[in-house]
Amino acid sequence: MNFVDVDLNLLRVFDVMMRERSVTRAATELGRTQSAISHSLSKLRFLLQDELFTKHGGEMRPTPRAMELLSDISTALATIRASIDRHQVFNPATTRRNFRVGLTDYHAMTLIPGLIREFSRQAPNATLNVIPANGPEIGSSVYLRQVDCALTGAAIRDDPSLLRVELGQDRLFCAVWSGSKIASSAMTLETYLASSHLQISADGIAEGLADAALKQMGLRRNVVATISNYLVLPWALRGTELITHCGDAILQILDEKSEVTLVPPPLAISNVNAWLIVHRQMANDPGTKWLRDVIVGIYNGSRATRRQGRSVEGSGAAGFL
């Protein structure tokens, strides 16, 4: 097969398959039948002399050859798309585009309500998918175009293909059950070290910012249990003397019925960064830029609400959630 015989729509199929990892979902996004997508894949396999995608469970996983081709093909398509977009005006009010946002469960709790409302208001005909973005692997999801952008606090390795923008920082506090003895007085380092701790870790293994701070002091805390997300925090702490950590953004989510109190930690702990990540090839895409602006607006509004809300400073155990 010669290049002149190649239908460039085949490359669109490849690009979408790399994101969707599913013939069914690729067909839906491209507005084609599953058999048409399968036929295009057969042509691509013949043209490129590689299987490209192999089935593992319910997912079509790319081969090493497909991963090698991703950058070149995606770059070429992004260049073509940018050339066309320069002569078109993106209108969120009329677009039917599907957008995908990667969020950690921490950011999801604080941003999803406002994000969905604003997204639906500005783009009533578009669809929004929120994808879990817990852990450093979210950089790969952006690189592979599985999400349009991602908001994460995880440390992402430097990659020239990824654009990182720091939106802000959250202060880390100790979270305890409001009925515990710990909540009734200012926390000392002695109390902190003598207590049992609950670690919140997406993979159940990675240490937190508190552990890094303690290690510099030659100390360690007594972690007795690990959970993978913040949503179960009130139930995990209730009726215990456990201590865990969370950013102050959680203040706007829970109320007094949650029975959680934030207490300033008795040691200096680094703040939680919020990074917005996007692939550089999509940084100037009008739709992606609009989505980024929506997320930044929601995040900044969230920070303003926190500043106007109740302070968790003061008498050591203030700031009931």
Could you give a quick summary of the protein structure above?
This protein is of the alpha/beta class and 321 residues long.
Explain what the structure shows.
- The chain is an alpha/beta fold.
- The chain contains 10 helices and 12 strands.
- It has helices spanning 9-20, 23-30, 34-48, 64-85, 105-122, 138-143, 189-194, 209-216, 233-237, 286-308, and strands spanning 53-56, 59-62, 98-103, 127-132, 149-152, 162-170, 172-177, 196-200, 222-227, 244-247, 260-263, 272-279.
- The strands form 4 sheets. It has a 5-stranded mixed sheet.
- It is elongated.
- The relative contact order is 0.14.
Helices, by number, come to 10
Low-confidence parts, pLDDT < 50 over ≥5 residues? 310-321
Q: If you average the pLDDT, what whole number results? A: 83
- By helix and strand content, what is the structural category? alpha/beta
Fill in the keyword field for this structure:
five-stranded mixed beta sheet, single chain, 10 helices, 321 residues, 38% helix, alpha/beta, disordered C terminus
Per-chain topology:
Elements: H1 9-20, H2 23-30, H3 34-48, E1 53-56, E2 59-62, H4 64-85, E3 98-103, H5 105-122, E4 127-132, H6 138-143, E5 149-152, E6 162-170, E7 172-177, H7 189-194, E8 196-200, H8 209-216, E9 222-227, H9 233-237, E10 244-247, E11 260-263, E12 272-279, H10 286-308
Parallel strand pairs: 3-4, 3-5, 8-9
Antiparallel strand pairs: 1-2, 5-12, 6-12, 7-10, 7-11
